[in-house]
Design goal:
Blueprint: H1 2-16, E1 25-27, H2 33-37, E2 43-53, E3 61-67, E4 70-76, E5 79-89, H3 93-109, E6 130-133, H4 142-148, E7 156-163, E8 168-172, H5 191-196, E9 201-202, E10 211-212
Parallel strand pairs: 1-2
Antiparallel strand pairs: 2-5, 3-4, 4-8, 5-7, 6-7, 9-10
Length: 219
Amino acid sequence: MLSSLEGSLREFLRADVPLRAEDVDIEFGTPNKEWSSRLTRSTVNLFLFDIRRSVNRAITGLSTREVGGNYTRAFRAPMIKVRYLVTVWTAEPADEHRVLGDLLRLVAVSSEVPEVHLAGDLINLGNPVELALGAEDGTRFGDLWGPLGVAPRACLELIVTVPASSPLVTDVPQPPEEVGVGLNDRNQPSRESRTSRRPGQIDEPTGAPARSLGPTETE
């Protein structure tokens, strides 16, 4: 799923920022000192630093759909929240801020990755790949730069919410259209029970043999 997600994000950013391949690279590596020393071109980096189950979108379960008279039941997988640290690496700070601003503008107005850019197993998820910017009370990114061994730089937090897998779909029979209901009064036996009862017979609990009052005749 993650490789399909990264491919989808790359195509989305290239097409809609836009970030042309001849001008800017898009990478998903860890932006540490060793990685940054190998850069030779302007690069947008999306660093995957956190994966967890979404608390706000934790609803799972079964859903039933009808299409053309056929009924299917789908098991909805848990929603996963994937968080990226987005940075821009260029020779000039002005270019860095310009590209970062273009990324900010796109993500701020986009609630999901358009279907045309989805790849691999994301195509049949039955749910959009949702996008959001990190809130102001999110991760303190200053705590990340130290372990990475590079100086702090301007960044965005991109939050992607996506199902853990495609729904598991099975066929189910058509639901009944009519339901029969019958009533029976225990204190007022039905006609059938009155005609089948012998004189003096007392009703017993289900499964017990019937017994009669008074002597019986035998031949």
